[in-house]
Amino acid sequence: MGMKRLVPASFLLIFLLVSCTTAPVTGRRQLILVSEEQSTALGVASYQQIKEQLPVVANTPEARMVERIGIAMAKVVEGAEGFAWEFTLFKDETPNAFALPGGKVGVNTGLFQVAKTEVQLATVMGHEIAHVMAQHSAERMSRDMATQLGLAVLGASTGSQEMVAMVSGVATLGVALPFNRSQESEADRIGLIYMAKAGYDPHAAVDLWTNFAALGGERPPKFLSTHPLPEDRIERIQALIPEAMAYYQP
Ligand SMILES: [Zn+2]
């Protein structure tokens, strides 16, 4: 994990050095305590695991669509120079998609139940890529680490060895957990701009979330637990479209 050498003093120094990170577009200040190298390593390892567990769909029109959108978006995002992007379609009927640090993006075949056009699929992929570019995983891990560190400092009884073990454990667990509400809103806003820059009309986001809302009672619990209700989202998305349209290149 590369975290073995962390001791409290250097941890605080890192805290001071990196706490000035800001999210793209929104400029929101972020606390990021893990290096891009560390979060990328976690993302790549998790993606590898998922590829071993779920069947990958390749060379179908849907798989090519996922790749086409991904490549178009990878060209317009800034700050992803070190990424080895991958855009994979997984055979899984849950309508969901995910993105991991380092540029690993997965789309489930079930997502095509709600993403009925390429531009609608681009809405979801833009959102997921926005989570990556805004370092939301690293931010979540950092918050957990800071919480644990705070507890340890308060207790004043934890040895540095124990703390290192604890911090490493938190970082390992953090990569696959859900994002919080402000991260979801931020990913919506940034994602609309990415889709617009990549040549996809952001108005399609409204259709996509309307389709999700129409899933109603059949909406899978997994999606509910990781994302806000589509009904609540549509109104916010509509308000964000004018900003994204300024970047739209048909
Ligand atoms: Zn999300």
UniProtKB/TrEMBL annotation:
The lineage of its organism: Bacteria, Pseudomonadati, Pseudomonadota, Alphaproteobacteria, Iodidimonadales. Belongs to the peptidase M48 family. Gene3D superfamilies: Metalloproteases ('zincins'), catalytic domain. The keyword Cell wall biogenesis/degradation does not apply. The keyword Zinc applies. Pfam families: Peptidase_M48. It comes from Iodidimonas nitroreducens. One of its GO terms (cellular component) is membrane. Binds 1 zinc ion per subunit. One of its GO terms (molecular function) is metalloendopeptidase activity. Residues 65-239 form the Peptidase M48 domain. InterPro entries: Mito/Outer_Membr_Metalloprot, Peptidase_M48. CDD domains: M48C_Oma1_like. This is Peptidase M48. GO terms for biological process: proteolysis involved in protein catabolic process. Keywords: Hydrolase, Metal-binding, Metalloprotease, Protease, Zinc.
